[in-house]
Amino acid sequence: NAGVTQTPKFQVLKTGQSMTLQCAQDMNHNSMYWYRQDPGMGLRLIYYSASEGTTDKGEVPNGYNVSRLNKREFSLRLESAAPSQTSVYFCASSFTGDNQPQHFGDGTRLSIL
Amino acid sequence: GQQLNQSPQSMFIQEGEDVSMNCTSSSIFNTWLWYKQDPGEGPVLLIALYKAGELTSNGRLTAQFGITRKDSFLNISASIPSDVGIYFCAGPMTTDSWGKLQFGAGTQVVVTP
């Protein structure tokens, strides 16, 4: 069972470079999410996609864009990376509706110099 | 949005001891979730609570949904080395945003032999 797969696992960028983080799930989930995790702050929602073809902003969307490519894939793009975007990024997926648990990938560790 | 306050921030315990942590909110939650994150991995759902007063167990873990709906508790009994990790509480950001989770800052648990 692959579950939620994120690529790459690690990446170092220079300020101003662009990058796309990839996420794919094989659980036939409708909804997908992108979070960032910073020390002492838990996880914060960046963007989410309730279903294929829809995306919406979360708590901290500035500096990011997303694409729900199909039901399986949800990518996160940094157009012009900034040091403040150094973080661990997690993708998650779930079935749509109340009380549906979210399943997380293992994260992408991104450093911006 | 609602603020989740999780405490303690960290715990250093001996193997065999019981562990207690809690999460409080300034607003009412309809769902409380408890996740565990192992080093280098994504969070994994441990327990989900859906009703005020609900007490739910998962092996040595027990969680309770506070009567006021503004707090939740997680207890780990007879801790073992594999209990090491970060434990997060989480809940929906608003009453109608089932998928948009807000996370506490986490409780780091370290178990010594």
Structure explained in plain terms:
The complex is a heterodimer of chains A (113) and B (113). In chain A, strand 9 and strand 10 form a beta hairpin. In chain A, strands 2, 4, 5, 6, 9, 10 and 11 form a 7-stranded mixed β-sheet that branches. In chain A, strands 1-3-8-7 form a 4-stranded antiparallel β-sheet, with no helix packed on it. With 113 residues, chain A is mainly beta. Helix content of chain A is 0%, strand content 49%. Chain A has strands at 4-7, 10-13, 19-25, 31-37, 43-49, 56-57, 65-68, 74-78, 87-94, 103-104, 108-112. Chain B has 113 residues and is an all-beta fold. In chain B, the strands form 2 sheets. In chain B, strands 2, 4, 5, 9, 10 and 11 form a 6-stranded mixed β-sheet that branches. The termini of chain B are far apart. In chain B, 35% of the residues are buried. Classes of the chains: A mainly beta (113), B mainly beta (113). Chain A binds chain B through residues 4, 31, 33, 40-45, 48, 50, 58-59, 90, 92, 94, 96-107, and chain B through 1, 4, 6, 9, 31, 33, 40-45, 48, 50, 88, 90, 93, 98-106.
Could you provide a short overview of the structure?
Chain A is mostly beta strands and 113 residues long. Chain A has strands spanning 4-7, 10-13, 19-25, 31-37, 43-49, 56-57, 65-68, 74-78, 87-94, 103-104, 108-112. In chain A, strand 9 (87-94) and strand 10 form a beta hairpin.
